[in-house]
Amino acid sequence: PGRLIQQSWHLVDAEGQTVGRLAGQIAQILRGKHKPTFLPNKDMGDHVVVINAEKVEFTGNKWKNKLYRWHTGYPGGLKQRTAKEMLERNPLKIMKKAILGMLRRNTLRHSFMEKRLFLYTGPNHPHTRELPPSTPALPPVPRKISHDFHFGLDSYAHPETFQREIRISRNRKKNRPYTRKYRNSPDF
Fold first, then answer.
1. From edge to edge, which strands make up the β-sheet containing 117-119?
2. DSSP structure string for 59-116
3. Phi, psi of 163, rounded to the nearest 5 degrees
């Protein structure tokens, strides 16, 4: 109580990025896990605007092998489409299903997180007041995420401090002699 939750806006360019890796990054920002004040039962997330959502990529043969299934509610009403057909009909649904599939299905998702996700085809979006044209997009998600990748948001993480703490903890582990304490020994 009494905390001010600041919600910022993030611009993500989806051109040439893999669907699952990008969806994982966006889902964490929508939840607010990139903030040091994160609480799992509170609405802590930020607004995310995704442009060029129709230019995402899948790895391997997923464009023709990946199936999106749903049921109409009538007997025998199981429908399915491949990822390529979904891209032709509604390209935004591919990203939306991937992002929302990585969030828990609860009141926070339905009431808050879904309303803060904005997907657009093409490079233009109507949120120029919050994100002026000079705003840079978040960096692309790397194929292998290392310990120093912090959602592409360097303003929240302090890489120098983080790297220094890792080096100190590693040196402590190396210099500490291994001693095994037995239950009957006086040191136990």
1. 9-13, 47-51, 117-119
2. STTHHHH-EEEEE-SSTT-EEEEEHHHHHHH-HHHHHHHHHHTTS-SSHHIIIIIGGG
3. -65, -40
Identify whether the C-beta of residue 96 lies closer than 8 Å to the C-beta of residue 26: no
pLDDT in tens, the chain (188 residues): 446 678 899 999 999 999 999 999 999 999 998 888 888 888 888 999 999 999 999 999 999 999 999 999 999 999 999 999 999 999 999 999 999 999 999 988 988 889 999 999 999 999 999 999 998 888 888 777 665 666 656 555 554 544 444 444 444 555 555 555 555 555 55
Tokens describing residue 65 = 């092998």
Contact (Cβ atoms closer than 8 angstroms) between residue 23 and residue 98: yes
